[in-house]
Specification:
The complex is a heterodimer of chains A (115) and B (341).
Chain A (H helix, E strand, L loop, with lengths): L4 H8 L3 H8 L6 H26 L4 H13 L24 E2 L6 E2 L9
Antiparallel strand pairs in A: 1-2
Chain B lengths: L2 H29 L4 H7 L25 E6 L5 E6 L3 E6 L5 E6 L5 E6 L5 E6 L4 E5 L12 E5 L6 E6 L6 E6 L4 E5 L4 E6 L11 E6 L6 E6 L4 E5 L8 E3 L6 E6 L5 E6 L3 E6 L5 E6 L12 E6 L5 E6 L4 E5 L4 E4 L4 E2 L2
Antiparallel strand pairs in B: 1-2, 2-3, 3-4, 5-6, 6-7, 7-8, 9-10, 10-11, 11-12, 13-14, 14-15, 15-16, 17-18, 18-19, 19-20, 21-22, 22-23, 23-24, 24-25
Chain lengths: 115, 341
């Protein structure tokens, strides 16, 4: 996983208004600067909490295993081959249905339009 | 404290944040012992094999005269609401392709729509910074238009996405260009909670997309121009539960994985990614990127998972729609042609 360097840099630089004001010549009240520092301190606290969490966190393979189990257990009408039982509700999309307002009949061999 | 002392503190705090971020990224890298494709292959799995007759268009819903920006199904999966910048919402009977309602919108610049769980109401929002609710059973006015039954006002920027909370017809979540997400009570029009904005763990740029967890409707994820996705608990507005880094550009679309424990994202960086909700791990990157010039890579505009999660459908800015095998990270274009990346 690559670092999102750009985003991180933008956030750590402070809120956009702070950045713009500094660029325009330091026309910034002490209050706003204090508020920005408070937000950064809060961010530091959250980041430290997350670092602590990572000490005891399981690696990605655990989640990968769960994904495999969860996807392979569920019937999926889009798959060429899928576990049963057959879901009767799927058939309604392939039955001939007459639209009351047109002469068109829809069958499973529709147009080859890209969705 | 003097102004220059405060500035020094600000510089120091900024440096500390950057140091901690780097350390976090390194630690996370160490925990990524495999991605989904690597694990699936190690377990002997092979990619789904589509033939040209396997994915066939069975309905084409024609009627909008402008770009369709958004659509949503009813929970029974028999009706659809679609929103277009021709200034209308259309409600379709998906089985017969019949239009049951064509709603003229007060603001044509609509970006999102959602069907209420009871199937009687729809919501939409866009550049007017409001979310409008229509009751489909209302009497039409003299001009034959369905009246707006409720307007949710309060966002200070465009409404990019909205979704009704699945087991509650009265609650809706919106994402906005004002960098916040809001949980609304639709019956009163009041904001129940605001996620982000004043608080440090909120998004730092426009929110482009939200997705509510179908397994636990207290949780939702948001995607933003700040290149991150964030997880929120609707009961805790004061801070995001987790922030997910990895994308190099706007996160245009987020969708929960069917198991409710993972979610997918699509971005301006041309990739889709799968994140683990609980740990924050980036489990897989779905990337077509082969050109040396980044400008050639089309951006991901919208994604959806099939019911098992095995397939990830992704729409791109060049008009293509591809199907990814979520487990093996292999890609198919509609029409049955296989492209292995």
């Amino acid at each position: 996983m690559t670092t999102n360097g750009e985003g991180a840099e933008m956030e750590a630089r402070g809120p956009p208004s702070l950045h713009l004001s500094t660029r325009n010549g330091n026309f910034l009240g002490k209050h706003r600067l204090s508020a920005a520092i408070s937000r950064l301190n809060q961010e530091i606290q959250y980041l430290q909490e997350e670092l602590n969490e990572l000490e005891t966190m399981e690696p990605s393979s655990a989640a990968c295993k769960e994904i495999l189990l969860s996807t392979e257990g569920k019937p999926d009408a889009f798959l060429p081959v899928t576990p049963g039982p057959e879901n009767a509700a799927w058939h309604r999309w392939f039955q001939r249905v007459r639209s009351p307002h047109s002469r068109k009949w829809w069958t499973h061999k529709g147009s080859s339009d890209i969705l | 404290m003097s102004f220059s002392e405060l500035k020094d503190r600000h510089v120091a705090a900024t440096a500390m944040v950057n140091t901690l971020r780097d350390r976090l990224n390194q630690k996370r890298q160490q925990l990524l012992d495999t991605d989904v494709a690597g694990y699936a292959k190690s377990q002997g799995r092979t990619a789904v094999n589509f033939s040209s007759t396997d994915l066939v268009c069975c309905r084409t819903l024609q009627g909008h005269t402008g770009k369709v920006y958004s659509l949503d199904w009813t929970p029974e999966k028999n009706r659809i609401v679609s929103a277009s910048q021709d200034g209308r919402l259309i409600i379709w009977n998906a089985l017969t392709s019949q239009k049951t309602h064509a709603i003229k919108l007060p603001c044509a610049w609509v970006m999102t729509c959602s069907f209420a769980p009871n199937g009687y109401s729809v919501a939409c929002g866009g550049l007017d910074s409001e979310c409008s609710i229509f009751n489909l059973n209302s009497q039409v006015d003299r001009d034959g238009n369905l009246p707006v039954s409720r307007v949710l006002t309060g966002h200070k920027g465009y409404v990019s996405s909205c979704e009704f909370v699945r087991d509650q017809d009265t609650r809706l979540i919106t994402g906005s260009g004002d960098q916040t997400c809001v949980l609304w009570d639709v019956t009163t029009g009041q904001r129940i909670s605001v996620f982000g904005g004043e608080f440090p763990s909120g998004h730092t740029s426009d929110v482009l997309s939200i997705s509510i967890n179908s397994s636990n409707s207290n949780m939702f994820v948001s995607g933003s121009c700040d290149a991150t996705a964030r997880l929120w608990d609707t009961r805790i507005a004061s801070r995001a539960i987790r922030t997910y880094h990895g994308h190099h550009g706007d996160v245009n679309t987020v969708k929960f994985f069917p198991d409710g424990q993972r979610f997918g994202t699509g971005s301006d960086d041309g990739t889709c990614r799968l994140f683990d909700m609980r740990t924050g791990h980036q489990l897989q990157v779905y990337s077509q990127q082969q050109a040396n010039n980044d400008q050639d890579v089309p951006i991901v505009t919208s994604i959806a998972f099939s019911i098992s999660g095995r397939l990830l459908f992704a729409g791109y800015s060049n008009g293509d729609c591809y199907v990814w095998d979520t487990l093996l990270a292999e890609i198919w274009a509609f029409g049955g042609h296989r492209k292995v990346i």
